[in-house]
Amino acid sequence: MSYIVSIGKYVGMIKGVFSKPERFKVYYTRTLTEIETIGINSAGIVAILSVFMGAVISLQTASNMDSPLLPKYTIGYITRSSTILEFSPTIISLILAGKVGSNIASEVGTMRVTEQIDALEIMGVNSLSFLVLPKVIAAVFFFPFLIICSMGLSIIGGYYAVTLSGLASHEEFTFGIRAFFKTSDITYALIKTCVFAFIIVTVSSYYGYFTKGGALDVGKSSTQAVVWSSIVILLTNFILTQLILM
Amino acid sequence: MIEVKDINKSFGDNHVLHDFSAEFEAGQVNLIIGQSGQGKSVLTKCIVGLMEVDSGSVLYNGRDFSKMKRKERKEIRTEIGMLFQGSALFDSMTVEENIMFPLKMFTKMSKKEMQERADFCLDRVNLKGRNKLLPAELSGGMMKRVAIARAISMKPKYLFCDEPNSGLDPSTSILIDNLIQEITYEYGMTTVVITHDMNSVIEIGDHIVFIHNGRNWWQGTKEEIIKTDNQEIIDFVYASKFMKSLKGKLA
Ligand SMILES: Nc1ncnc2c1ncn2[C@@H]1O[C@H](COP(=O)(O)OP(=O)(O)OP(=O)(O)O)[C@@H](O)[C@H]1O
Ligand SMILES: [Mg+2]
């Protein structure tokens, strides 16, 4: 029962977020700031994770290929497809749910408990769209770039891991990377990314916005935000994969 | 003028406001006094619409707030300035940006005009030249004063102050009181101030409402509150030994 109430509250919140902005220019500058805090500031962690993720995927694939019948280029092929289809969009989104989600929930939650949101409302500002809309736009537009970089870096990580350890040659790996390539895979990954970006920002804002109490509760909201955005991402990933691959 | 009619508000079993009614005239300083936890902050939040009332109505110059459409509510809100008990400054913005924020959102002022207005407001609260500081770099009293500057930047028709001088030294406290009184008379605002400070009561209380057990227990002017023999008011005002001894002497 309480889940249904929460979902209703969430839908109501989304409606508030997409109501007409008061001042376009203010929203524009806020969106640029959010692109920096949400997107650019996450680039470092995404880069490091991606390189190591790609390296591990390729090493694992290489070490599990016992059969001599399997050609060596399979390593490159598997690294590419698993990175593009799942690891970059889903795993990186989960990491971003942790970093960006907790950040958003604690920022909005603090504004709630220190009455800053009330102050916005009293001035006549629609606090939901003012606070959340720029974050949604920033994430939905910028996360796809992060994910594309992540895909590239993962493959580079895989390349160096395999070639430097001598498990496959430069030619074999790059042949695998290019084999059976479908652009639709990238499109699919980017659609997923946009959906996940939306989930991370809105679910975290929801927990922040409806925080009740004090500083302790802001901490709780922030944890809840990460837990629930991750769960919703995993569920959505399952549904989207079914829908798109069928 | 703001009329509050038979407001009820409860949180679960906690019945905070019982059929509360009061009138706050324009061009005078209206004070709400009462013990801690009696519902002063809740009352102001109900009046400005930050909390929904269970029953009753609030009229702004005769117009019922709860019956207004979204757009009308928004218009009324741009006419309200509010000082929150905890200041509620936007902590990602500098002092100046805080004050300029409502101007940026709702007026067509140029950047220079906004800056001039911010300087003017800061000057009025004795914080000239502190434009570029962040709220985290201010003392509690300074934050309060910046919050007042922000509340008056739009020249509001209605001003609400929740404990404007708690945590301030006596001289700054008097400065704030005088400021509130001055701008109220100057702009003909309807001002509602919540306070615990008996100095403010005597200093600026044109109309005083004493809230007790969620009801409008007593109301009158500062001259009347000194003379009243209402026991709850006497208990409230003369709570300290010092005040008691003073009362003994006066008698
Ligand atoms: N958001 C809320 N949820 C539940 N109860 C609340 C809420 N806000 C206030 N209350 C309750 O309402 C009552 C009145 O609180 P209020 O903050 O109005 O007191 P106050 O008169 O402003 O006191 P103070 O002088 O200490 O600020 C208290 O019993 C408080 O517990
Ligand atoms: Mg209070």
Automatic annotation (TrEMBL), chain A:
Coiled-coil regions listed in the entry: none
Acetylation is among the record's keywords: no
Pfam families: MlaE
A single Gene Ontology CC term: ATP-binding cassette (ABC) transporter complex
Membrane-spanning ranges: 38-59, 136-162, 186-207, 227-245
Top-level lineage group: Bacteria
The UniProt record lists the keyword GTP-binding: no
InterPro entries in the cross-refs: Permease_MalE (IPR030802)
PANTHER family for this protein: ABC TRANSPORTER PERMEASE PROTEIN-RELATED, PROTEIN TRIGALACTOSYLDIACYLGLYCEROL 1, CHLOROPLASTIC
This protein's name: ABC transporter permease
Source species of the chain: Brumimicrobium salinarum
Native organism taxonomy: Bacteria, Pseudomonadati, Bacteroidota, Flavobacteriia, Flavobacteriales
Automatic annotation (TrEMBL), chain B:
Protein name (Swiss-Prot/TrEMBL): ABC transporter ATP-binding protein
GO terms assigned for molecular function: ATP binding; ATP hydrolysis activity
CDD domains associated with the record: ABC_Org_Solvent_Resistant
Pfam family, one: ABC_tran
Keywords: ATP-binding, Nucleotide-binding, Transport
Domain ABC transporter, chain residue ranges per copy: 2-238
Keyword Endoplasmic reticulum in annotation: no
InterPro entries (UniProt xref): AAA+_ATPase, ABC_transporter-like_ATP-bd, ABC_transporter-like_CS, P-loop_NTPase
Record-linked Gene3D superfamilies: P-loop containing nucleotide triphosphate hydrolases
